Amino acid sequence: MAAVILSQVLIILFWQDAKFGTIANIIILLSVITGYGFWSFENIFNNDVAVRLETSSKIEKNLLTEKDIEQLPLPVRKYLRYAGVINKDKVNNVRIVFDVEMREKGKDWFKATSVQYNFFDEPTRLFFMKGEMFGMTVPGYHRYVEAKAMMDIRLFGLFTIVKQSGEIMNKQKRLLYLMICVLWFRQN
After folding, report:
1. What DSSP state is assigned to residue 59?
2. Number of neighbouring beta carbons within 10 Å of residue 86
3. Nearest Cα to 180, choosing from 71, 80, 94?
4. The pLDDT value given to residue 174
5. For the packed helices 74-83 and 167-187, what is the interaxial angle rounded to 10 degrees?
6. Model confidence over 37-51: pLDDT tens digits?
7. In Å, how far from its chain's centre is CA 131?
8. CA-to-CA dists, residue 8 to 14, 19, 21, 25, 34, angstroms
9. Were 18 and a residue from 11, 38, 112, 182 both cysteine, which residue would form a disulfide, CB within 3.0 to 4.6 Å?
10. 180 pairs with which residues across the strands?
């Protein structure tokens, strides 16, 4: 940013010879602003993850016992025994990385990557995605904390495209969180 400002001051001083350098400065300035937008938006996610990892690291390591699962439905108890997780360390959190292709009904496919953290002591899901749409990267942050869900999708990390929260989303995210937990345990 400082280099762009210095460059533009010099261009103004030598306007007749250097005026077209303003175009380059505008392009650089837009790149800097866009880069900052992506960085600051993803940093919200990274800070939330850091706080939860710190909290999770303080949890005492315990083994999963028969007593822990006695209140679960019989099919779940049978599955946990079958999976061999009894008398193993309880899982406090998991990190999942996805490379996917997505689309809306009737629209073209687009590529996306995401990083997701699930925490099991206090049901929490932090999910950051970068999708490629119309040749641009569009980041989105899905957050489920304290039984409250939020989805925030921004163009260049700066301009809100979608921002949703509320009771319907909270219920959907609770169900999705439970499904992810079951799938993760099934894979491991």
Report:
1. S
2. 15
3. 94
4. 52
5. 40
6. 889 999 999 999 999
7. 11
8. 10, 9, 8, 7, 19
9. 11
10. none
Using the structure block, give the residue that is written with the tokens 């995210």. Answer: 173
Beta strands in the chain (DSSP E): 93-102, 110-119, 124-133, 136-145, 148-155, 159-165
**Distance of alpha carbon 42 from alpha carbon 100, whole angstroms:** 19
Q: 64-95, pLDDT tens digit by residue?
A: 899 988 888 898 889 989 989 899 988 888 89
pLDDT of residue 175: 53
Provide the token pair at 18.
């250097």
Residues of the chain with pLDDT under 70: 168-188
Global pTM? 0.70
Contact by Cβ (8 Å): 34, 45? no
